Amino acid sequence: TTTNYPSLPKAKGHEKAIAVMTSGGDAPGMNSNVRSIVRSAIFKGCQAYVVMEGYEGLVRGGPEYIKQVTWEDVRGWSTEGGTNIGTARCMAFKKREGRLLGAQHLIEAGVDALIVCGGDGSLTGADLFRSEWPSLIKELLETKRISEQQYTRYQHLNICGTVGSIDNDMSTTDATIGAYSALDRICKAIDYVEATAYSHSRAFVVEVMGRNCGWLALLAGIATSADYIFIPEKPASSEEWQDHMCNIVAKHRSKGKRTTIVIVAEGAISADLTPITPKDVHKVLVDKLGLDTRITILGHVQRGGTAVAYDRVLATLQGVEAVNAVLDSTPETPSPLIAINENKIVRKPLMDSVALTKSVADAIQAKDFDKAMSLRDTEFVEHLNNFMAINSADHNEPKLAADKRLKIAIINVGAPAGGVNSAVYSMATYCMSQGHKPYGIYNGFTGLSRHESVRSLNWKDLLGWQSRGGSELGTNRHTPEEADIGMVAYYFQKYQFDGLIIVGGFEAFVSLSQLERARDSYSAFRIPMVLIPATLSNNVPGTEYSLGSDTALNALMEYCDIVKQSASSSRGRAFIVETQGGNSGYLATLAALACGAAASYVPEEGISLEQLSQDIETLSGAFENAKGRDRFGKIILKSKNASKALTTDKLAEVITEEASGRFDAKSALPGHIQQGGLPSPIDRTRGTRFAIKAVNFIENNQDLIAEARSDDGDFDITDKQVSATASVLGVKGTNVVFTSIRHLYDVETDIAKRMPKIIHWQETRTIADHLVGRKRV
Ligand code: ATP
């Protein structure tokens, strides 16, 4: 019997009905993914369905489990943790009979395409389902469970995967939806534990999730500068790990560290595949080192709560791309998986990704750990090497020969941003592991020119920097020319620096350009110099990502969530939240996307009167329609510099007056809250990654710059040498790249506006508008 689906118009002709389900373990961000898929589908003229309770819902079928949903049904979901459409582990779907029922129920509901948000198990199931589809529908026809017409209409099932899993265990994507939220919970917990560990001078063994994948343990290890980690991909024999761990912990203690943090992934094993449990580690720390040791098992807290900004944005953009992929697909295209590589959302063949992921688990089972490692993506391997270099290295026996050791300086310029201290900590500890001598220049270029504030960085002084907010080195906005470039050169000469790392935003960018151009006059600047972008405005040319922007976005998002809750409590209220960011609308745009704001106003566009009246009309309509609904409030994001005439207060007044009683608007100013408290795990781990890449840049370009220095003191530098020796480190699309400062400054920068000429988040604005039904004039 076919089920009768009431209520909403059904797909006909060329239109598609697209269903989404969440499956496997729940992950923060799944709700954003579902919301975005539902709304994108409707926006594109399709019907949207949700399958409740994962594959269980397919097996059971009927309108209770395969539901058509409306735009309004997913309102506000971005801010909610878990998954509102339920998830389950379903044994029945692992059998053909279960999948046969699933096929029948999808056809009865009139669904053409299924988007599955889940882990590798769920996506394996999805892939199998699609490959079996022709035989399933044939059997359904032969047993008269579907009609001839249905058979013809539903010849092909479109399947698309979006990876939702806190483990980050799927190959071919850098991040899975939920992984960074889980990492956030873990790092917060370890930060708390660290304080009590410090007070009692204790050791803590912390167990985190991850059965086949050590990503959470590894990234948490970097973000909290843990002493030791256990991950399934890199096991050692029981004797080896005991000695290695004790050696490192004892060394850290002897250098004056009061705390010991050891992170154990759930799936940690030794080389003979016996599990390593927190109890095993505890015993070793107590028996061999006599440390007062406690165990903390984080458990389901790691899945908890609302998603971090990264996951909301990732899940939302991937949802949009999943719907596009479904609409693009033909019977011949292989099922896609929506992935992210660095900063770019990309499609990968689902089957290959699943197979690759499975081969990691197989390699571990076969004790082929080198293979397991080689199958993980290169970023994972890079993180692991970084962790070993900065936390486990023997600084008494550095890696490089004496003649390869350099003197490298690091300086902060501009406003503080999350991850800046992490960059300094990682640069310095990495330098120590290699044998370089790291120097900190305190209080920016004026600190140097006026007070010779150069200090050689030593290990003990840096303890705790990895997780601290602000700038431990001290920072200000002065460029070398403002500070006295001659004095800056004098001190560079005095300390014989072989390389410079500048960490900062637009002033830092200008500073690097000044130093590079001053190479003609001052030989001290004829060294490799590199900028690590760090600013919440994210306006540094040459990169799509700056340290600190994730921390700021989370701080702003949390603020908006609270304000939105307040707005929802009173009848008909919109809050206008004013964001920082200079002339860059990045923060306002991304926060609008993460919080589902009704509109955002940014300096790149200004505020036109036509658009404003259109927005007021749209909002009035929404408030009208929502009469009687509980929890209904609106947020509007406005960059401070979006308009000279319309301050945030004025804008609120204008909107309230124009809305003439239909709703009112109030302003809300988060101000310096946007610099964030403790830096987010993303900014901490990227700080580490960027810093080590920056040191490598300095190491690798020593020869090149030496070629340009002639014996008679002349400096004759080619374009190639310029670009290779004074550069901005940046994330561009799917890559981390170094771009010549001279090229960026001369070609890609609007100096007056302090902005890159090309805005990479433009498309994100369009998506944010579509997903809230904002009309553009
Ligand atoms: P997590 O990463 O959170 O563990 P997951 O998707 O890997 O998520 P699983 O429990 O492995 O979680 O899979 C979820 C569901 O997907 C299973 O309960 C089952 O219904 C379906 N599934 C998993 N593997 C298969 C398979 N090989 N064939 C058919 N269905 C499967």
Automatic annotation (TrEMBL):
It is a peripheral membrane protein. This is ATP-dependent 6-phosphofructokinase. Residues 407-777 are annotated as: C-terminal regulatory PFK domain 2. The chain holds residues 182 to 958 of 958 of the full protein. It is an enzyme of class 2 (transferase). It is found in: Cytoplasm; Mitochondrion outer membrane. Residues 1-392 are annotated as: N-terminal catalytic PFK domain 1. GO terms for biological process: canonical glycolysis; fructose 1,6-bisphosphate metabolic process; fructose 6-phosphate metabolic process; vacuolar acidification; vacuolar proton-transporting V-type ATPase complex assembly. Its cofactor is Mg(2+). Catalyzes the phosphorylation of D-fructose 6-phosphate to fructose 1,6-bisphosphate by ATP, the first committing step of glycolysis. Mg(2+) binds at residue 120. It catalyses: beta-D-fructose 6-phosphate + ATP = beta-D-fructose 1,6-bisphosphate + ADP + H(+). Allosterically activated by ADP, AMP, or fructose 2,6-bisphosphate, and allosterically inhibited by ATP or citrate. It comes from the Eukaryota. Heterooctamer of 4 alpha and 4 beta chains. It comes from Henningerozyma blattae (strain ATCC 34711 / CBS 6284 / DSM 70876 / NBRC 10599 / NRRL Y-10934 / UCD 77-7). Signal peptide: none annotated. Belongs to the phosphofructokinase type A (PFKA) family. ATP-dependent PFK group I subfamily. Eukaryotic two domain clade 'E' sub-subfamily. Belongs to the phosphofructokinase type A (PFKA) family. ATP-dependent PFK group I subfamily. Eukaryotic two domain clade "E" sub-subfamily. The active site is at residue 167.
